[in-house]
Amino acid sequence: MAAIQTNGLTKRFGEDLLAVDSLDFTVEEGEVFGFLGPNGAGKSTTINMLLDFVRPSEGSATVLGYDAQRESETIRSHIGVLPEGATLYDRLTGREHLEWVIDTKGTDDDPADLLEKVGLEPEAAERSAGGYSKGMQQRLGFAMALAGDPDLLILDEPSSGLDPTGMQEMRDIIAAEADRGTTVFFSSHILGEVEAVCDRVGIMNAGRLVTTGTLDALRENLSLDSSISLDVETVPDALVADLENHEGVESVTVDGSTITVSCAATSAKYDVVTQVGAATSVHDIVSEDTSLEQLFNTYTNGQQPGETVVDSELDEAETETEVSA
Amino acid sequence: MSTLSVAKKDFLDVRRAKIVWFVGGLYTLFAVLFFYLGQYNNPNPDVRYQLFTLSSIGALFIPLIALVAAYLAIAGERESGSIKYLLSLPNTRRDVVLGKYLSRAAVVSVSVVLAFVVGAALTVLWYPDLHIDVFASVVALTVLFTIGYVAIAIGISAATKSRSRAMGGAIGFYFVGNLLMIFPGLSIIEGLDYLFNSLLGLGVSDNVLEFIRMLSPTMAFVQSMALTIPDDLAGVQAEFSGDVPFYLEPEAALVVLIAWLVVPVALGLWRFSRADLG
């Protein structure tokens, strides 16, 4: 059973705003799925439809096998949610928030355990949430999501408002929950945080899901140049010509004693190194991976040739995932 | 039950809101003032007259307490986004509306009953007779009226998505459903009379117009007050009696008042359960 599955999920606001455009994706049980995209891409609207805050114009979705609209209450008793842009109740203390959540979910969590998990001081939990910093609010929200040991965590921009330490702690908690077998679905417009924890990502842009797959698969399927630089003793002319003719090499540039080779696939790098090593002595090798930033920008800035290509890339990426899984 | 869990948490929250206690306290002050004036320099005071005066002040004042205490119940949470926490838990939208209704009705009723408890204590102190039967039925009717206005505020709050719209709705209702119904010279009914009879010549009877007036919660409350007045209390009774059709009897007014406990909440829930909470 899929943790989340959408079928042609579409949301229009009014006549002309197409916030989410026929979305089809599946999040498998037990995986950590990063839902990426710039602000306004339709991520939150999608999550809002999964939680029945917003009703789809067309299509449908299931969460943990239950229909997102008809069986929303059942879904919400099995999941934990950290909503985006939601404020807490100013007049209630942190502990009262947790007691309320535990009471509503009908579980037997100890508020102290939940507070410890998210790194919120017990003294802070006795104060009313009106005086909390953004980071404390986010931690309390996370503690509320963790109550009742949910099968699925839906986290909408979990790191918003957190400092770098807080973001790291948040990632650690997500990883710990994932290790316990919890499926995690979280959205983000910050790329750094997905790389460390996600099994798979989906990238949304302008209401459409432009691609899904593992980060490796996405990197490979995008012919972004993956380059390697070699610092060498001498640069023989014949070597440059040989390298340029080599299969998988896109371009060769020489700057003084440094040869930079741009490869279509990472596998070509080894050939490049052996070939250069045979011709001259090598002082240093720097291999550059495609940065996630670059990957993300390529998908969301319209650098890709067109929608048809995007769709085929999507298919390829999905295939890669299945192979690697 | 989720409705109760919503109500419990909301009660915890709203009882810490100072504004609710402020308006409730103001009503108590009114009560003290009236009970004091009723016996001041009066050798043989009758508390029942004070009760009826207090309820006519209540007709203007209680809607304000109820509207202030409840107009933000749902719309405020939609604006701040905390409704997402509420609905991320296994609560249905019906649980939210009914739970909020329950807790706000409890808070406002408690503050109104408190005013009467203070009034009862002063009555025992200052008046020869508490008239417990009249006292109790006036309290019961006033609480009914209070909850009716909480229902209206909850209905408005459930149907609107922001603080400002909910406030506009509450103020609008206060004018149209309350002020413009009470004062005969300034009443909407005068306008309807002019429209139906003078302009269109439909010949709508005064009784029908009076019934339209009684459809407002405040007039339903004022008219049903006759039920609490014993026959021996002349003077007050005359004001309400007369040869009227059944739909203008105090019992009919009571039915209208009870309908106000249900209809606004049902309409608000109908709107809210279809709304997109973006």
From TrEMBL, chain A:
Keyword tags: ATP-binding, Nucleotide-binding, Transport
Acidic residues compositional bias, start-end: 310-325
Gene Ontology terms for molecular function: ATP binding
Stored InterPro entries: AAA+_ATPase, ABC_transporter-like_ATP-bd, ABC_transporter-like_CS, P-loop_NTPase
Residue segments, region Disordered: 300-325
SUPFAM superfamilies hit by this protein: P-loop containing nucleoside triphosphate hydrolases
Pfam family, one: ABC_tran
Domain of life: Archaea
Residue span(s) of domain ABC transporter: 4-231
Similarity comment: family membership: Belongs to the ABC transporter superfamily.
Protein name from the UniProt record: ABC transporter ATP-binding protein
Lineage of origin: Archaea, Methanobacteriati, Methanobacteriota, Stenosarchaea group, Halobacteria
From TrEMBL, chain B:
Presence of the UniProt keyword Transit peptide in the record: no
Top-level lineage group: Archaea
Membrane-spanning residues: 20-37, 49-74, 101-128, 134-159, 171-189, 252-272
Entry-linked Pfam families: ABC2_membrane_2 (PF12679)
Alphabetical keyword list: Membrane, Transmembrane, Transmembrane helix
PANTHER family (UniProt xref): ABC TRANSPORTER PERMEASE, ABC TRANSPORTER PERMEASE PROTEIN NOSY-RELATED
Protein name per Swiss-Prot or TrEMBL: ABC transporter permease
Organism whose genome encodes this protein: Natronoglomus mannanivorans
